[in-house]
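Below is our example:
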Amino acid sequence: MEQKRTFISWTAMAMLTATAVASVRGLPAMAPYGWASIFLYVLPAIVFMVPIALVAAELASGWKGGVFVWVKEAFGDRIGFSAIWQQWIQNVVWYPAQLAFFASALAYVIDPKLANNGPFTGAVILVVYWASTLIATRGVGAFAKVGSIGFLAGTIIPSAGLIVFAALFMGSGGHSQLPPVSEAHWLPAFTGIASVVLIVSNFLSYAGMEMNAVHVTDMKNPGREFPKAIGLATVLILFIFILPTLAIAVGVPASSVNLTQGVLQAFDVFFSQLGIPWGTTIMALLIVVGILSSVVTWIPGPSRGLLLVGREGYLPPILQKVNGRGMQVNIMMVQGVIVSLLAVFFALSPSVQNVFWIFSAMAVQLYLIMYMVMFLAAMRLRRTRPDVSRGFRAPAMRLMGWLGFFASLAAFLIGFVEPTGSSGNQVTYTLTLVVGIVVLGIWPFILYRFRRPAWKTLPDTGETETAPAAAAQG
């Protein structure tokens, strides 16, 4: 008897998307803008998140295999391999930035002064990353159990807590650092290009939408339901981002918001006013647990997609090795070496915030390269492969494609400008990003150049689905 097919409702798709994208890590970067942060969240959602979701949904409904296959079909396997490499390597750069946020939260539990201590941050990154890698090598069962609690502990409870305790803070007579609505500035003040660089961080907050698009074929009527799901998801994500950001702005003066500590700074203010200062420690522990489970879950994820593509002849055999539990141990070891080298920057830098921003910006830059290629591939395939059956067709493909491409390009170029408030040097900042992007991004072209037929260990079936990469970045 044929099993009845189960479909995903449009509301379930919306919740899946919101769960994958939302995070508290980037909230402090937007809090200094106050009411203008609403605009800074809405703009990238319209010009970046929505085009990604719609364009990727069409690609996923026409070709299995994720971004590698999409780009390969449009521009050839060399560019396709480069695209999935960018998707993987940006996640590797994201790990130390995420763990710096983890170290900041952990410092609040041990000694808040350690939050700005480079050696402490570097040591935490090394210990936690390699411990998480060890857990991940034990197989899906091990890290799935750890990762299941991450979203609730690390995102939902802290986000809701910021809103609730900000309201209680003001209700108990606390002074809001956020001006009243009657005095609000809804657009950010423009004092030069550096004043808007932090907007770029919001692009990474919305990244990863292409991964959820693979579920579009599991909807009963994707042509009608998927746009509704994206609309609802966008509203949910904006609420999750905007309200907690405004809550931080209520408690912490704009000039004092710390990129890695901002969430806990706000909790400190709220709980002190309410007479429960120990509450910050509780929230810090929840964030620690949430980030830890997130990292454990995502260490094996993106590298799995790279392994499957690599087995088609794009990676040398040594990087295709898996252990008895089927985990790609050698690729994870390479990840670990890169993360360890990046952790040294935190240990040696006098400013944890500056290094945190550089790595966050570098992850964005690497990912945006992939997105620009993906948008171009989608438009090309609509023109050159109209015969391929698509379960979903993005409305106004050319508009969505060019909107997403130019938004990604603008964010990429702006990302080389050092943000206002940074204590670093513009030349050093830009050179660091350029060198990092080149050194980390050139390897797929080198590997492609020296690949050998013997490297291929699996037939090219097209079944190279990549695991979600940026959903947990949020």
Q: What stands out?
A: The CA atoms of residues 136 and 278 lie 33 Å apart. The two ends are 43 Å apart (CA to CA). DSSP finds 19 helices and no strands in the chain.
